Amino acid sequence: MKIEHLEERVIDYKNSIKTVVDKKTLWETKTKALISKTLKTICNTYDIGWKVQELKWIGTNEAVNITFDSFPKELIDCTNQIPAYQFIVGGALVFSQSYSGDVHTFILFPYMEQVPLDNSSIELETYDPKMISEKLIIEKVDEFLKEMIKWEVPTTKNKLGY
Known about the structure:
The protein has 162 residues and is of the alpha+beta class. It has one domain (3-152). 38% of the residues lie in helices and 20% in strands. It has 3 helices and 5 strands, in the order αββαβββα. Strands 1-2-3-4-5 form a 5-stranded antiparallel beta sheet. Helix 1 packs across helix 3 (134-152). It starts with 6 loop residues before the first helix and ends in a 10-residue tail after the last helix.
């Protein structure tokens, strides 16, 4: 094989780097703001104790999530009837930018010592940032709420406590 045979691979490599840069630029200029704005609108429209967080890890990875932070205000009176009731903080729908610029979506469940860690999350899908729309974000929040309802009131019998 001659050096000239590498030209096609070199061009492909340069194009792959450009693709990643384009995706990361789109995340920074449009996608992240759209996710954050849509999730904040949802929080303001339906005040059930959740909040939006924008996270930045070491390096270039970033995420936007909606997470349950407090108990819904309108239900506090009913929990006062059961003194032992304890609200478990957590549970989040995460939109996380990967190293490649794609956006991973996943659900994190509230942490409980009695629940094995292998049941702590669900991987949803991975999207090109240009595929993220308000409609898709709302669909993912709907999916998140369905999973949180199943977590709160499971259909299968799990032994927790006694």
